[in-house]
Amino acid sequence: MRVTPIADYHQVYLAPAETYPVFDPARPDDLVQVAPDRRSLIIVTGIAMGPITLDVDLVDAPDDGAGADGTEQSAGALILDQPLYLLAPTIDTGVPDPIFTPPHAGTYAFRITATDRKKFFDQFVEEPVEFYRIHLWAVQTDR
User: Fold this and answer.
1) Which backbone phi and psi does 40 adopt, to 5 degrees?
2) Rounded (5°) CA angle 122-125-128
3) Which one-letter DSSP state was computed for residue 122?
4) Under a CB-based contact definition with an 8 Å cutoff, are residues 11 and 89 in contact?
């Protein structure tokens, strides 16, 4: 699924409804921060505010992880038992549609790849200048 969320304060949240993970300011250079409960994540953008392009896909297995020039990668795992929504730290997005609904509750590994994250660092933009791709795959499910 491709979406164009708005980054605010260098952050875009993917979290269950009515959940607001806390950004760790001691780790501002991380590409992604996973919440301590492992149920949500924060994409840390290069731009200060504006739209980004984000693809989120469920895959059967991880890709080879090879990145082109200008890309950054990070990986981790989430415990998912409900849909993830795109949330912003200070922008009221209303009630958004879910960005990802796990087919089964369980642990999902993820790999995030970012392109051009540092090209317009700390700037305000009106058009997407950064591209993010998140692949998720089931590691262990409760079925």
Assistant:
1) -155, 165
2) 110
3) T
4) yes
Could you tell me if 39 and 87 are in contact, meaning their C-beta atoms sit under 8 angstroms apart? no
Give the predicted TM-score (pTM) of the model: 0.88
- Amino acid making up residue 51: P
Which residues are paired to 86 by β-bridges?
14
Sequence-distant (6+) residues with CB within 8 A of 95 are none
Sign of CA dihedral 116, 118, 120, 122: positive
CA distance 100 to 93: 16
In 10 A of CB 15, how many CB atoms?
20
Beta strand ranges found along the chain (DSSP E): 2-3, 6-8, 11-15, 32-34, 41-44, 49-51, 53-58, 71-80, 85-87, 106-115, 131-141
| Gap between the Cα atoms of 43 and 34, Å rounded | 9
Q: What is the pLDDT of residues 80-112, one digit of tens each?
A: 999 998 876 655 555 567 889 999 999 999 999
Tell me how far apart the alpha carbons of residues 84 and 87 are, in angstroms, rounded to a whole number: 9
Quick check: 19 pLDDT over 90?
no
Strands 11-15 and 2-3 come out as unpaired
